[in-house]
Amino acid sequence: MQEQDTEIQEPSHKRTIRSFVVRGGRMTEGQQKNYDANWAVYGLNLPDGRIDYKTVFGREADVVIEVGFGMGASLVEMAKNAPEKDFIGIEVHPPGVAKLMMLAKEEGVTNLRVYCDDAIEVMANCLPQHKASGFQLFFPDPWHKKKHNKRRIVQPLFAQQVANVLKEGGLFHMATDWEPYAEHMMEVMEAQEGYQNAAGKGQYHPRPEWRPLTKFEQRGERLGHGVWDLIYSKV
Questions:
Q1: Residue 174 — φ and ψ, nearest 5°?
Q2: Three-state DSSP class for 206?
Q3: Pairing state between β 17-18 and 7-8
Q4: Residue 10 labelled as part of a binding site
Q5: Quick check: 156 and 163 in contact, CB under 8 A?
Q6: pLDDT tens for each residue of 192-230
Q7: Which residues are noted in the entry as S-adenosyl-L-methionine-binding (predicted)?
Q8: Edge-first strand listing for the sheet containing 166-176
Q9: Is 141 a catalytic residue?
């Protein structure tokens, strides 16, 4: 399962609640070489501040943002299968970023860029406001224990931060294999103003064809595990 790589920002007088744990952040020598060799082509830097999608990709196109892409295989596949769109991945795990860039180069994918930074900071300081056509959050850390539920990334504040990035009609697409987290996502999103459930109020969405079926999901299906997709449109 992918680890969700961002944090929930609270008012400045409160302690920040992180929704991720960085595991295995040190890269192997091979991963470091891949990272260094491909960063100039695919990498975006937090200190550079607010970007312009047309400048980054050299064209006008729909832009999809994905947070917490893990090792990147499904995001590279999506970008390859939708050359008419542009994709930006955000992941705090350096080996995953290195792997994504290596796969993108091998597949000849040019419509993909990546941040290796905290998603909340990137969303607040780098991404254009009200411009993206899609925002993806697939298999974030469910934080199973009740005392850790506050660390789940899908909270009212995060939903509104996503809305700030999406244009009108843009889609916020979530997926999880943990039913209690799916129920939590549904509860949070149904209460948000400015969103409409694409499947109908209180309904989960069938897995759309544009979301690749991961090896993790395929294994889960064989074991009888469920996966829940939720898609909300910004209105």
A1: -120, 150
A2: coil
A3: antiparallel
A4: no
A5: no
A6: 999 999 999 999 999 999 999 877 787 777 877 899 999
A7: 66, 91, 118, 141
A8: 43-44, 112-115, 86-90, 63-67, 132-138, 166-176, 228-234, 195-197
A9: yes
Query: Domains in the chain, please, with CATH?
Result: 27-234 (3.40.50.150)
What's the pLDDT tens digit per position in 161-180? 999 999 999 999 999 989 99
Three-state secondary-structure class, residue 74 = helix
223-228: long-range contacts (C-beta < 8 A, 24 or more apart)?
225/177, 226/177, 226/179, 227/175, 227/176, 227/177, 228/175, 228/176, 228/177, 228/179, 228/182, 228/185, 228/204
**Residues 196 and 172 sit within 8 Å (Cβ to Cβ):** no
Range 129-160 burial, b when 16+ CB lie within 10 A, else e: eebbbbbbbbbbbbbeeeeeeebbbbbeebbe
What does the block give as tokens for 197? 């459930």
The type of residue at 59 is: R
Question: What's the chain's Rg over C-alpha atoms?
Answer: 17
Angstrom distance (rounded) from CA 104 to CA 114: 11
State the pLDDT confidence band at 143, using cuts at 50, 70 and 90.
confident
Asked whether residue 187 is marked as a ligand-binding residue, the answer is no
* Length of the chain counted residue by residue: 235
215 is in an annotated binding site: yes
